[in-house]
Amino acid sequence: MGADKEPESPADESKIPPLNPEDPLKGLTDEQVKESLSFFGKNEIIIPETPLWKLFLKQFIGFLPILIELAAIVSIAVQDYTDFGIILAMLVINACLGFHEEYKAKKSLDELSHQLESEVAVRRN
């Protein structure tokens, strides 16, 4: 068995600015907020956008598509062009249907995420 790696240590704690407010009911001061923003950056979650062509090509990866691709390779190797054409059409139709369903699901998820409230009330000063 391989040697277990130790988890990476967090950033040097001496460099992290203290952000604990003296009075939790008041919250952070404007100066502490600016210091936190300059040190940590904005508190955002960046959602990567998947290009549509990657979404389509992803339909050709998986157990069933690879099995169909192997069948197409075997049929072309034995020079059975009719079966190759049928298998290739089956592969493309499967990819188109899978892409359509995944695209609809992605659009629905995007609409739902835009409807969610993304702002939080905070205390300042």
Protein architecture, described:
The model is unreliable at 1-8 (pLDDT under 50). Helix 3 (63-77) packs antiparallel against helix 4. With 125 residues, the chain is mainly α. It is built from four helices and no strands.
Keywords, separated by commas or semicolons:
54% helix, mainly alpha, 125 residues, elongated
- Main sheet, how many strands, which sense, barrel? none
Instruction: List unreliable stretches of 5+ residues.
Output: 1-8
Rg calc: 26 Å
Count of helical stretches? 4
Number of beta strands: 0
Q: How many angstroms does the end-to-end distance come to?
A: 55 Å
Structural class: mainly alpha
Question: Could you tell me the mean pLDDT?
Answer: 82
User: Order of SSEs, N→C?
Assistant: HHHH
Q: Approximately how much beta-strand content do the residues carry?
A: under 5%
Helix content: 40-55%
Give a nutshell description of this structure.
With 125 residues, the chain is mostly helical. It contains 4 helices and no strands. It is elongated and about 80 Å long.
Question: What is the topology?
Answer:
Blueprint: H1 30-40, H2 52-57, H3 63-77, H4 81-115
